């Protein structure tokens, strides 16, 4: 009987740590303030939303930050501990490799430009006359990216939004794709960009108000379902809005 009791104790001891570990979700992200950044309160607005949604379902979210391409690669790696990555814009190509969550937030996507040389445009065809900056491996809009892929738009690739802000400020490009909140936060907080604040502006016309998602591995649909249910238990839009308002 004593041996049986000890065996039961060992079995129980083995089960509970595994159950506790199963309640922790690992995702990758990038430094993309104010939506995601390891140095920000709650690690950014999108991370705050994600953590709240998982917490509503009894899960803890842990986020590790990497350069964007690396973050996506690690999330795609079937042998990694990561269930996915975020925040991401929707694209059909990505949807072929990942399971998209329900929308967890949104952001105004448009262009940064030189304040002294604002650009007027009404359709993407108008942009053919301009040199446009993009960030490598970022999704923009479906139509914009299709025109880039077909060579209809002249684009210059860089590795970060910061590079594009600097290039626009000094007139090296006419426009660069960027989220308005990212631009405003960057020129307020980055010492290299604060001094350029009066040299740049956000173009009057938006490309699109983009929804933000978590991309889960295709074999992690159950985690996506948990997250989606968690979203129904919180006010994600208010969490993001309150977070951004607190930065003003």
TrEMBL record:
Keyword terms of this UniProt record: Signal
KW Signal (keyword) present: yes
Family listed: Belongs to the bacterial solute-binding protein 3 family.
Protein name in the entry: Transporter substrate-binding domain-containing protein
Signal peptide range in chain numbering: 1-20
Domain of life: Bacteria
Keyword Magnesium: no
């Amino acid at each position: 009987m004593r041996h049986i009791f000890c065996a039961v104790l060992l079995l129980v001891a083995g089960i509970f740590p595994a159950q506790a570990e199963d309640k922790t979700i690992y995702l990758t992200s990038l430094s993309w303030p104010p939506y995601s950044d390891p140095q920000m309160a709650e690690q950014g607005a999108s991370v705050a939303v994600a953590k709240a949604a998982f917490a509503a379902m009894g899960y803890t979210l842990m986020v590790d930050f990497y350069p964007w391409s690396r973050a996506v690669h690690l999330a795609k790696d079937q042998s990694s501990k990561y269930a996915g990555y975020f925040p991401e814009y929707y694209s059909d190509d990505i949807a072929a490799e990942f399971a998209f969550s329900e929308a967890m937030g949104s952001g105004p996507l448009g262009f940064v430009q030189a304040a002294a040389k604002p650009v007027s445009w009404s359709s993407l065809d108008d942009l053919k006359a301009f040199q446009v900056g993009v960030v490598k491996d970022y999704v923009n809009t479906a139509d914009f990216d299709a025109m880039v892929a077909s060579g209809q738009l002249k684009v210059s690739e860089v590795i970060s939004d910061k590079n594009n802000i600097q290039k626009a400020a000094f007139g090296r490009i006419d426009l660069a794709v960027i989220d308005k909140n990212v631009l405003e936060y960057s020129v307020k907080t980055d010492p290299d960009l604060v001094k350029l604040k009066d040299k740049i502006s956000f173009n009057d016309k938006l490309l699109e108000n983009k929804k933000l998602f978590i991309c889960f591995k295709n074999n992690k649909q159950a985690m996506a379902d948990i997250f989606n249910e968690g979203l129904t238990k919180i006010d994600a839009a208010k969490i993001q809005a309150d977070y951004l308002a607190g930065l003003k």
